[in-house]
Structures are given as structure tokens and as C-alpha cells.
Amino acid sequence: MSQFVVKDSGLVTKILVSKHINPCYNFKVMSLIVHKYGGTSVGTPEKIKNVAQRIKKIKDQENELVVIVSAMGHTTDELIDLMHKVTKNPDSREYDMLVSTGEQVSAALLAMALQEMGCPAISLTGGQAGVETEDIYRKARIKNVRLDRIKKELKDNKVVVVTGFQGIDSKGDIITIGRGGSDTSAVAIAAALKADVCDIYTDVDGVYTTDPRIVPEARKLKYISYEEMLELASLGAQVLHPRSVECASIYNMVIHLRSSLKEDEGTYIMSASQIIKEVGKMEKQEAVRGIALDENIAKIGILKVPDKPGTAAKLFGALASEKINVDMIVQSIHSGGTQADMAFTVEKPDIKRAVEVTQRVADMLGAEKVISDGDVSKVSLVGIGMVSQPGTASKMFKTLSEEKINIQMITTSEIKISCVIKANEGKKAVQILHKAFGLDKIAQ
Ligand code: ADP
Ligand code: ASP
Ligand code: MG
Questions:
Q1: Could you report the per-residue pLDDT of 19-74, keeping only the tens digit for each?
Q2: Separation in Å, CA 400 to CA 126, 325, 327, 380, 412
Q3: Which of 178, 200, 235, 320 is surrounded by the most beta carbons within 10 Å?
């Protein structure tokens, strides 16, 4: 795709998308292309050299290229393990200083591999590349991308390799933007550069109906809307960082998620209206497009809490002020109506702090007790078509009950249904639901 073609003509946009889809497209325009390579794709020196080959080939066709990289393989996890060997209470600023180093290694190595092939390249940290973030360590949002440096290096005919997952705050400190955040770095930089598409290269060749590691029969989707992808990613499908999808939808940036090992097309993540233009059959949309499993959750219950105004506000206000994200919330009333039980889920790493805060509020409110369970997971069905096709929830519950899987919590929205179940039943639940909803048979 080219950013030199007028973008506000529907027809031209259509041609551009088709060009990207059809590699045989036969007239050449100079393009500004943004690629992102995930950890597995740059996991070894050989893989870095392969990525460099791919980039050089595209650069040789007179394209301008900005490449965002993740840390090699499991480097970020290893850095966090190292951290736990020296402290139980890591300082957040030093956490960011430490974990951001992984991306610097892969960026510098990729730039060197390109130089070695005779392809001019430079690596830049998030700060050097102008990625400005909020002043919040560990999970800041990107506020702005100042493009002067990237543009200067592109003008000097270099491939610009930028470290993903990091930026710089108003004090000049290195800030990370949340685990898996390199996808968001890539989309934010692509949006700032007004690229037409952001190619995200990973270890699968597209977005599937569910994680193909759990269900080998899962089907690759050719297109998926921002709304559905955002739900899938937020509900645990690790294939894309949820904020990257949010950012792409704000700037109408098409994401092409594809394999770093193959040349094949992957999945286009774009607006529902763009998809209708491409395939022209939105009405036929299946009720369920995908299934996600989140194994990174824990459940907390607060029992027999006085049922009066302000109780929920106190509890969830206290959790919010400790920056603990709460997801599903269920409240049930005891007979007599003066007491209630509340249950909610948090991210697994937050369970200890969440229980402490909940216990503090329970003591204050005179609740009977606080319980917690880290042995749970959440399985979710996602699909825009659900709104117009009743019966999806009941079919989900029936399918789970036939396998004797007990549902502990349920939440629904217009385009998703989530159930909390026992952790060791999560994969089984995904497999049976995938089959029950015929996702192994849908056309691409
Ligand atoms: P990267 O290191 O490139 O960022 P990730 O490991 O973060 O890659 O994400 C890719 C993985 O996401 C795949 O290997 C796959 O197992 C998993 N995944 C989960 N859900 C899906 C899905 N619906 N479609 C494709 N991959 C999925
Ligand atoms: N390296 C970071 C992580 O593992 C960011 C990323 O890979 O997207 O979370
Ligand atoms: Mg990832």
C-alpha cells in the first residue's frame, strides 16, 4: 500500500487494500511501510538474519521502512526472573529500566544484520524515536510520537529499527507500556507516520477462530473487525496487544497480522465497513467468530457484606486507587435482603494486593469474610453477529454442562459471553465450544 495516493477516496482505498491482498499487483509506487516483529520472530541470530533478508528485499524495491521489534524470545521473562532474584519489592522505575533493555538488544542486532547485508539501517530507542508516554511506570499509554528523528533517518535512506514496548516520559525516564506492548508501539508509530497498513509479523500466520495451539482445527480468518479483535485480545487471545487494536481503530489503521516465516497473506484487521466493502456479506456473519481463553485471572469473593448504598463504590474505589484492574463483577443477595455476596476477577499477578485491599474494606464494612481462588480461567465467545442471533448463551451453557463443566461466573455484552470456570477445564471448554459452534467448518 502507498501513502502517496489520496486516502479520502473510497475507490482508491479499495484499490490499495486489494493491492496489498494481491501480491501480483503490477504498478509500483514508493511506499512507507511499517513492520513489527515479535519475540519468536527475532528469537535467534539466524532468525534476525532472516528478518533482515525480508526487510532488505522490500527496501530494495524503493520502499521506506520503519521496523519495530520485540525482545528476543523469552528475554523479558528472563529479565523479570532476574529481578525477582534480587528483590521482592521491585521499584517501578528500575523495573522499566531493566525490562526495556531486551528490545535494545534485538533492535541493535537487527540494524547490524542489515548493515552487514549492505542495507543502511539505524536502531533507535523509543525515546530517540520520539515515542512520548504518560508519566506512569510499567503500563503507560503513548501520548504522542514526535516524528522528526524517524523522518530524518528515512530521508538519509536508512531502515529505521525502533525498540517496541517503550517510550520516554516528561522527565526523560524510560517507560514501558505493558506486557505485549510492542504491537501498540508499532500501530502508534504507523498511525503517526500515516502509513496505510501496519504489518505485524508473528509465529502464527493470522488470527484464528481460537488459539491454534489449543485447537489444531481452528480456522484462519481472512478479515476480522476492530470490535471483534479488541474483544478477543482483551479476553485473553494473546496474538495482539488490546491497545494496539484500540489505537488502530481510532486511526483507521489496517493491521495485517501475518507469519514471519512465510510470504502468505495473513489476517486483515479493519473496520466492519471496510470488511463489508471487501466481502459484501456482513449479514451472513456467524454468531460466534472466535473463542478466547484467559488463564491469567483470579477470583475474589467478599461474603455477607451489608447491602446498602456505597458498598461497591468503597470496595472498587479502593481497588482502583491501588491501580488494580477489576474485570467481571457479580453480586448476589442473601435471603432477608440485608446482606450481599460479591465476587470479582482481577489479573493473577494482582491477587495478593487485591486480597489485602479487599480485606481492609471488608473489615471497615463489617463483612463476614474474604475468599480468593487463583485456580480459575475465563472462556469467552466473541462475535458481532450474536446481537441478532438469540440462543448463543444458552447453547454455550448447555455445551459446558454436557461436559460437566461448572460455570462460576457469567458476564455478557452485545458481542461477547464470558464464563469463569476451573482452570484445568479451560482448554477442554475451548475445544468443545469450538466444535459446538461449528468454528472448525467456517469458510475463511
Ligand atoms: P509475538 O511474540 O510475535 O508478539 P505472541 O506470542 O504474543 O507473539 O502471540 C502469538 C501467539 O498468540 C500464537 O503463537 C498463538 O498461540 C496465540 N494465539 C492466541 N489466540 C490466538 C488466535 N485467536 N489466533 C492466532 N493466535 C492466537
Ligand atoms: N518484550 C515485551 C514483552 O515480552 C513486549 C512485547 O514483546 O511486545 O512483554
Ligand atoms: Mg505479542
A1: 444 343 334 456 899 999 999 999 999 999 999 999 999 999 989 999 999 999 99
A2: 45, 27, 22, 12, 16
A3: 200
